[in-house]
Each structure stands twice: as structure tokens, then as C-alpha cells.
Amino acid sequence: FLRPDLVACTFSGSVAISVAVSAPTRFLVLNALDLSVNRTSIRFQALEPTEVVFFKDDGVLVLGFAKQLPLGEGLLKMDFNGILNDQMRGFYRSKYQYKGKERNMAVTQFESVDARRCFPCWDEPAFKAKFKLTLEVPSELVALSNMPVGNATFAGPIKTVRYLESPPMSTYLVAIVVGLFEYVEGMTTKGTRVRVYTQIGKSNQGKFALDVGVKSLNLYKDYFDTPFPLPKLDMVAIPDFAAGAMENYGLVTYREVALLFDDKSSSASSRQSVAITVAHELAHQWFGNLVTMEWWTHLWLNEGFATWVSHLAVDSFFPQWNIWTQFLDSTTTALRLDSLEASHPIEVEIHHASEVDQIFDAISYDKGASVIRMLQSYLGAERFQKAMASYMKKYAFSNAKTEDLWAVLEKETGEPVKDLMTTWTKQKGYPVINAKIKGDDIEIEQAQFLLDGSSGSGMWIVPITSGCGAYDTQKKFLLKLKRDKMVIGSQCGDRKKGGNFWTKLNINGTGFYRVKYDDELAAALQNALETKKLSLMDKIGTVDDLYALSIARQQTFASLLRLLYGYRGEADYSVLSHINTVTTSIAKVSADATPALAGDIKQLLIKILLSPAEKLGWDPKKGESHLDVMLRPLLLTALVQLGHGKTINEGVRRFNIFTRDRGTSLLPPDTRKAAYLAVMQNVSSSNRSGYDALRKIYKESAEGEERLQVLGILSSCRDKGIVLESLNLIFTSEVRNQDAYILLRGIQPEAREISWNWLKENWELISKTFAGSLITDFVETIVPLFTSNEKAAEISKFFATRTKPGFERTLKQSLENVRISARWAEGIRSEPGLAQTVRELLAKP
Ligand code: BES
Ligand code: ZN
Q1: What is the CATH number of domain 293-419?
Q2: Which of 111, 112, 246, 327 to mutate for ligand 1's pocket (most ligand atoms within 8 Å of CB)?
Q3: To bridge 362 with a disulfide, which of 40, 366, 572, 784 should be the other Cys (CB 3.0-4.6 Å)?
Q4: Pfam families of this UniProt entry (predicted)?
């Protein structure tokens, strides 16, 4: 029972928990945190505890009784009070506007370990229980929970709402939302009621998510061959929300931009991310909620699988989005993080509640999803799906660990799944496969790849795939040893004559590894790229591998530039999105490594990106594809960042028209950010009209995405005063705490010193204001902007007395990145013939 007071921002409540005492004990040990429990109310059956002790750092409550407890089931009862906090965790308040007045709503966010902030409970995923909730709230408000309302009784301004009992579920999935909302409604083929709740007046913007939601429930029911077990599913947009979305059983919560889509004011990339987010959270209704990880060590089962299967779902709803090609973004992000010494295994040991938050990272999500894709492509889609369905049935309403999944897959397919997958989930890192041509063979050798140029001792069972000369002659085998060889046949093309010979390993990037080719194979591959023989996915893998090898100084910077040059004329969104990642990083490192050459290198990068950008122009074309609509802002933004004068001027021109006529067709939602960024290139403390105009848009706009687009660029400038003014907005009510990271991400390398000083000066305030994962954003965005060992030492010293368990790992990773950049820059500085290569490429027609 919970009674939130939305004016005083407090709540009171009581629990009655049925506990089975299975062995003699005098103690009950459960979780509770920041709750004031009424000691005299505590009873186990008729017994009163003689000791009540809180261990605040552990979120643990110990009840000691005078005598041993009777064996068997008993009821534990207590009353308690708490505060509806502002930290977006536990039971918290979020603010919204209604009829020009500010109002509070009460919301829960329990994952990972914050149910204990709302009511005393056994707050671990394996302690599943049936929940029966009662809420006492103002009569005019919408009050939602996991289950439908069983009955409601009204006493004037107050109503008591009783919800139906839930099936067995973990505490982190319990949810409550109390506030003013309206909704749109749909129905699955099996008759499950689905609703999307929004702020009053915005329910139209919930229609897209509703459609994806209904389709997702239909698809997953078939994929897992298991019905959705609850009578209803609600999805709610919450104005203050720490994560992107949360899969609470039957009551999924979202930050507004992750759920709402407005035909007039939202961009194509926002449409796509709403679809992915909804598909991800609804996948959890099976994978996570119905079958739950046994302990946080297996979090990746939840997040990796939901990430993977959300792509499967979205690919089936929107085949034209090429979402599996875009998925390589996840794979390359994970490969990047996992090449650090400070990475961690997918299955990571968790000893304390405070360690859980930081494993919601690219290893659990993106490496997790990538190794599932690797396994699925090794086993085949059909066999894989069948096995997943039987796993789901075997562990429904219960818990499972990683090995349980492997056991089912192994039994269903007869393949050595456990041995294979254990090498990927129990050790951190991944291999680089060195491929060398020797006569008619290709010799391959695996070695752990680390970005700092060293090599670790890991060994993997690697599903090797190779294509040669064409895509219909693929080969597959498992590399179990350090070294092995593959025979290349005549279908690879004629080596002697050169020209049509090529071979590529890790076809379509399904494997979680990199490949380093010898000179002959590399030249053949570059030739295959330039003669348009490679698939989109292989184009991405080829550039990302060489990029990483160049950072590790296993390949020259010049060879990276030469390969990149082979991508001029590329027109695909996903490929160019990767090229953009690489060019951004190159522009940054070359400014530090070779200032004299940095200008020329920028010109070269512009040369690579300019022709597809000119083809697309600023104006959308009728009937163009979703991917082209997303490509346009990608390229325009990249050109603006690289300082391309013509693009900047055009952006400023369009912005000026936009400020006079906000409805102008010259600046639709998709290209606005590029124009905003162009404006920021010229503003300074003495010439701030553009900046003021942007701030005005931020203040006045009612549309979530437009506001965030402005927020994302306000710190993107070189002027010290402006950057500081923007960063300080973080401490004002103009920027919700949930959005601070968006401002931080805009900081450019040119502003790193100012930003770092700002961070140091404000650290006390920052660490007081931002809880949990939100604080890591400050470290993660500012620290990696540096590229010198001296700076790494200084930063490390600053944090030596200021670390907290919550961001230790992130700090380590960020510092390692700084040292890696420093080493990369050093290598570039001393690379002979680099200037020559740059000039040569610039001079090419
Ligand atoms: N279970 C997470 C939400 C979460 C994240 C809870 C971190 C606690 C800590 C949810 O399923 C999720 O993964 N949300 C993602 C969005 C998704 C599309 C990748 C998020 O919040 O970014
Ligand atoms: Zn998730």
C-alpha cells in the first residue's frame, strides 16, 4: 500500500510480505534504503523484533528477534514513510506543466537496485514474488501500475485503487505512475490492450509508438512461441527520466523523446530511435521479465538479447531502413570499448549493489548483442529461433543464467555452443586475426587486440567466415587454435594477373573480431572496395578495422588516409556514418599531432564527404528514402564541423530565414541541427546574436526534439565565454538534469581546457546534483577530449581523492583513451612521408 503526497513530495506505505522460513534463524535480512520504517509497526506473525538495524551503505535492513522464528510461511508487516525524491530513482517526482501551472507526478524507476527506496523488500532479481498493489491518490489523476485495476473506491477528492495480482516477477520491474495523462489505444491480434500515455494534448504523438508496440507484441509472441502473459501493456512518457526507457512489466516508462513522435517536428532519426526503443523494451517483456537473469552478472542476457532482437523486429517492420547494416554501429562501438585494458568480461562479477549501474554499458548491450548475432549466424536463424523458444518455455516465470541458455542451445542444435560462447562471455577483449597469403593458402593467427598496441593473452574459439572473389563462395569454420590455414581456391580470382583477386574475412561483420591483412591481401581488398565489390557491411568492417589498427600503430596513418580516400563517392548512410566517426577522430588527433598538416588533412576529409553532400543538398526531395533523409544532416553536420565555408554560410543563411519564419520549408527538423551548428561556428562573446537567437528557440519551443537539438550545440564553439555560459545552464532550471549530458556531448576539443577547469571548479556541486549513472557523463564526455599523457596524469590526480564506486570504471576507461590518443598522436608525428601522402591525395582529380 502506498499513499504519495504530490504536494509535500512525500509518501507513506505499508507492506505485508509472505516469507517462507526454511531454516532456523533469529534474523530477517532484507533491503530498505532512505525509508523511515516505523519500528513499532514491525511484526513477523505476532513477533516483534528486538533489534532493527539499517546498513545504509548496503541498503540493508536487519531485523533481529529474541527467539528463533517458526519454520514455514509467515507474514512480515511494517509501515514506513519516504520522500518523493528528485533523483529519478526509487519513488520520485517529475515536474510538468498543466494549464500554465507547474505540477508534480509520482513515478518509479527501480532498476537496478532502487525498489528498496520505495518499500522494504528482497530486492534481487532471483527473489520473484507476486505483487498486489494498492494506491491512495487524488481522484482526478491517472494512477497506473503493472497490472490492470481490480477495483477503485472514491472518497471525495481521494480514491483507493486496487490492482490485480501480478504473476511472479522481480522487484526491479514493479512500477507506479501517478499524474495527469491522456492516451491512445490499440489491440494485439490476441486481444491484449495496448496504450500510450502522454501529457494532455500530445496523445497524437503517441500513435507511432503505439503502432510499433502492437506489432512488436505480435512478433515476439510468434518468435518466442509464448503469449504475452499480462492482460494489458501501457507505455508512458515521463518528463524527467534518467535512462532512455524502462521495461517495467506491463507498464513501460520512457523519456519523452524516446516515445513521442510528431510528424511535423520530429526527424527521421528520431522516428527510428523510437521504433528501436519500443521494440527493445517490449522484447524485455519476454527476455528479462518472463525469464529473468539470476543475478546481475548475467545482465547482458537481458540487455544484449533485447538489443539484438529489437533489430530483428524493426528490420521486419521497416525493411527499407537496412537496420542490420546500422547495427554495425553497435558492434564497432563495442569493439572500441573492448580493446581497452579497462574493459570487462560480458559476464562480470558483481559483489555489491553499487557496482550494478555501471555495467549498463557497451559491453553488456553492444558486445552482448554482437556475440548473439555471431552465434545466430553460426547456428542459422531457424535453429536459433527454435532453441530460443524452448529456453523461454523452460524458464518462464523463473530465472536463468548464461550457462542455462547455452545448455538449451547446445541440446537443440547439437553444436558446441557452451565451449564456443564461454570464450566470448567469460573473458574480456577479442582477437585480431592476422591473415597472410602463403602460396595457395591463407595463414591465419589470432592474438588479443588492444588499442594501446600491446597484445593480451586471450584465446577464443572464432567462427571464421571468408569470402573470396565473390559473395556466393563463402567459407565457414571454427578457429580453435592459435594458428590455422585456409586453402584459397581459383574462385578468388586470378592472383597472378592481379585485378579481380580479393578475399575478405569476417563477412558482413558477423564475427566479433578484427582482421589484419598482409600487404598483398590489403591491396586486393582496397581494390575490391574501389571497384565496388564489397557489401555495405564489409565496407564498414574494412574501414573500422584499419582505423583501430592505425590507432594501435599496427598500420600507418597514411594507409588509413589512403583507404578512406577510397570511400569518396560513397552514398550509403551507414557506411558514411562510420566514415564520419573516423574523420571526426582524425581531425581531432591531427590537430594535436601535426598542427602544420591539420588544415590539409581537413581539406582531404572534406574532399571525401563533399560529393555525396552536394548530391543531397539542403532540401529534402520528394519520395526520397529514410536513409537519405538521415544522411543529409549527417553530412552537413560533418562538413560544418570540418569548417567547410560554403556549408557554414548556407546554414547561417537558412537559420536567419528560420528565425524570422519558424514555419519555413528551408529548415525542416532533419537539417536544423546542422544549421544551428553552423551558427555556433561564428558566435563569440562580442558577436552573440546567433547564440541569443538559439537560446530563444530553446526557451520558446514546445517541441522536445527541437529543444534538444539546440541544447546539443550550445557548447559547440571555440569562444570561452560562450562555452562557459552554456555549461552553466546545467545548474539552472532551464536544463533538466536528465538532459545535461546532451550539452556536455557538444563540447569540442578546442574547448577542452575551459571545460575541464569548469568541471574541477564545480565538481562538488556536480557530484551532489547528479546521482548514479548521470555523473559518469561528465567524466566520459570531457576527459577523452585530451590527447596527452601529462593531462592524463593531472586528471588522474584530481580524481584520486574524489572517486566513487559508481564511476571508477568509466574514469579508468576515459584515462586509458587519453593515453591511447597520446600514443597515436606521437606515432603520427613521427611518421615519415605523411605530408607527401596527404598532398598526393589532395591533388588527385
Ligand atoms: N533496462 C534498461 C533501462 C535501464 C538502464 C535501467 C540503465 C537501469 C539502468 C532498458 O531496457 C534499456 O536498455 N533502455 C535503453 C534504451 C534501449 C533502446 C537501448 C536506454 O535507456 O538507453
Ligand atoms: Zn534494455
Answers
A1: 1.10.390.10
A2: 246
A3: 366
A4: ERAP1_C (PF11838), Peptidase_M1 (PF01433), Peptidase_M1_N (PF17900)
